[in-house]
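Hi,

Apologies if this is the wrong queue. I'm a grad student, and the batch job for Thioesterase from Actinokineospora spheciospongiae produced an output file that my downstream script rejects. I'm not sure whether the problem is my script or the file. Here is the sequence I used:
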Amino acid sequence: MSRTLPRYALFPGAGSFGGEFAPLTDTLGRRETRLIKYPGRFGSSFGEHPDTLDEVIESATDQAAALPAPVLVAHSYGAYVAHAVACNLTERGTPPATLIVTGASAPELLSVPPVASPAEVATYLDDTDPTALATAPSPDWREVVIETTANDLRLLRGLTPPATALTCPVSAIRGSRDGLTTDESIALWSNATNGSFTTHTVPGGHSAPLRSTEFPPWVTARCA
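Support response: The file is valid. Your script probably expects a header line. Output copied below for reference.
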């Protein structure tokens, strides 16, 4: 039987609209992937930022639940949303096939920088991933990214990590020069699951795994 629904659910990072997953989507095929669309990012709700992280998690859970045993692939901020979604799906008796996180320390180590002003957020983005603003197609879009990032970080500060133990495998990958993670901090994602766990480090910064030629085959190997 041919697959009629995507296998991979992609969770973008703070301020992102999913562009960081383009290399993975190009490799896996667009019919195999579905971008999780956070409230306020797309359609008629564009620019109307959610008030709580629960709104984001509930919306993302509904989107992921529409896929049969999805593989959740998540970057940075998206890793914490995807983890909560995985917990929700597990509690419903429909756990994901696996959870793959990039550029994110384990939930119990989450620390959100106290940035608030546009200038502070811009500096944070430039320090974390210099491409985030440099690739913005216009000054207006740059402001959208900054404003969206500020709200995502605000929401993330209110996160209480779910206590549900996952049953699915979990894998964590980071860039060796990522200032937001360490090998030790991603290794603690093992606490999130009773299933198998793997970690991997590639050369580069915060978003390096997503751009690495190693990433697509590494993802598919986690699902074998």
